UniProtKB/TrEMBL annotation:
The keyword Mitochondrion applies. It holds the Pfam family UcrQ. GO terms for cellular component: mitochondrial inner membrane; respiratory chain complex III. This is Cytochrome b-c1 complex subunit 8. It comes from the Eukaryota. Belongs to the UQCRQ/QCR8 family. Component of the ubiquinol-cytochrome c oxidoreductase, a multisubunit transmembrane complex that is part of the mitochondrial electron transport chain which drives oxidative phosphorylation. The complex plays an important role in the uptake of multiple carbon sources present in different host niches. InterPro entries: Cyt_bc1_su8 (IPR004205), Cyt_bc1_su8_sf (IPR036642). Component of the ubiquinol-cytochrome c oxidoreductase (cytochrome b-c1 complex, complex III, CIII), a multisubunit enzyme composed of 3 respiratory subunits cytochrome b, cytochrome c1 and Rieske protein, 2 core protein subunits, and additional low-molecular weight protein subunits. The complex exists as an obligatory dimer and forms supercomplexes (SCs) in the inner mitochondrial membrane with cytochrome c oxidase (complex IV, CIV).
């Protein structure tokens, strides 16, 4: 009956279990008045965005160019086919 958990000795709160104090731990603290949380944020945002956009130009530019070429050729063909000359050339009778 001598090994039951009885809770007769207080062991302390979390992290303070009554053992020897820890040595060799260095903590650095910076005052909130000395911090600059947005230091360089606008500069970094502009140049990082520009770098990312320019790195994507070869991929987006090729797709945009092909899409524009396709759109202009199809629009011209559609305009021709819906014109009087296009109807006469295709032989469509309405």
């Amino acid at each position: 009956m001598g090994g039951a958990a009885g809770g007769k000795k207080y062991m302390g709160w979390w992290g303070h279990m009554g053992g020897p104090t820890q040595r060799g731990v260095v903590t650095y603290i910076l005052s909130p008045f000395e911090q600059k949380p947005f230091a360089g944020a606008a500069h970094n945002a502009v140049f990082n965005t520009a770098r990312r956009v320019t790195s994507q130009i070869p991929y987006v530019g090729v797709a945009f160019g092909l899409g524009y070429l396709l759109y202009t050729q199809i629009s011209a063909k559609h305009a021709y086919l819906t014109s009087k000359a296009g109807h006469a050339a295709e032989g469509a009778a309405h």
